[in-house]
Specification:
With 305 residues, the chain is α+β, with helices and mostly antiparallel strands. The protein is built from twelve helices and five strands.
């Protein structure tokens, strides 16, 4: 039994991998590994540079949309996401020359229409909102042409948003109506005062009363007149208070507020990752080439024997 084990023992060692032998193979074919690694690194470097050149950079602007209807009718609801849904807005932005040139260059002729322009702008311009503050909006645009032209993209988008804010116009319209009603009320009060003056002149009973008794006397003897006077005064006070409120809104009527200047953001590319993968792949392929050459050399030596 012991003889059989001794016969099997060399075969077991033959199947084991000798780490030193592997290292010796790699050292022996080191130039194959180095050359393969250099070639793969150069190829990955070219790919990384190409990807980096195609990676867009961006311009960003932060704005804050704080809108309140103030209880007024006809105030537009400003939605930054709906800007590109309107054909006129799309045309206003796409007419920027470098942007239009890029669109015509990258878009097939059959898609060079308003739908294609809207899709193209949707890819160039992106919006993001803060979950904690839904009114905080970030406008980001890919730099097309030079930075000046790309700033114009953001400025036009912002201009469109501000043009949709009609709060000031609605407030002014409401003030005009209230002023007109107030003027009418003033005239009504003036007429009532003239009626009261006539009563004081013609009614001898009221002249003999004390000042604090006159109001009660008038209310009892001329109830319709005094009720109308009370109602007109109430309207007058309402219109005055409403005009004061509308005047106070003028200081906070700006709905679209710019919270930052336009700033530059470098696009994130995968150039470094591509280069790192190229180096690793070069080393791996280099080792594979080394082992393949060793196998071929060994095969040749055995064939010659």
């Amino acid at each position: 039994m012991s003889k059989e084990l001794k016969m099997l023992e060399p075969k077991q060692y033959d199947d084991e991998i000798d780490l030193y032998e592997l290292i010796e193979i790699l050292v022996r074919h080191k130039w194959s590994i180095i050359i393969t690694t250099i070639v793969c690194t150069l190829l990955s470097l070219g790919g990384a540079l190409y990807v980096r050149s195609k990676t867009p950079n961006y311009l960003i602007k932060n704005i804050l949309i704080q809108q309140d209807t103030y209880g007024l009718k006809g105030v537009n609801r400003i939605d930054p996401d709906s800007v590109l849904l309107q054909d006129g807005n799309v045309k206003k932005i796409i007419e920027i020359e470098p942007l239009k040139a890029k669109f015509l260059d990258e878009t097939p002729k059959e898609f060079q229409n308003i739908a294609g322009e809207r899709k193209f702008l949707g890819e160039i311009i992106t919006l993001s909102k803060d979950d904690k503050n839904p009114g905080a909006v970030t406008i980001k645009t890919e730099i097309v042409g030079d930075e000046k032209d790309s700033r114009e993209i953001i400025n036009r988008y912002l201009e469109i948003l501000k043009s949709e804010d009609n709060s000031a116009e609605v407030i002014q319209k409401e003030k005009d109506l209230k002023n007109k009603s107030l003027e009418t009320t003033k005239n009504n009060l003036k007429d009532l005062e003239e009626d009261l003056i006539t009563i004081f002149k013609n009614d001898s009973d009221i002249r003999s009363l004390k000042p604090e008794e006159k109001v009660g006397f008038l209310t009892a003897k001329y109830p319709a007149l005094m009720l109308k006077k009370s109602e007109v005064e109430r309207y007058y006070n309402t219109y005055v208070n409403e005009l004061i409120r509308l005047d106070s809104l003028n200081d906070r009527v700006e709905v679209v507020k710019e919270t930052s200047d336009i700033y530059f953001l470098k696009g994130e590319s995968k150039a470094k990752l591509i280069l790192a993968v190229g180096v690793v792949m070069g080393l791996f392929l280099g080792m594979m080439v080394a082992f393949l050459k060793e196998f071929i050399d060994g095969y040749k030596r055995r064939y010659k024997k």
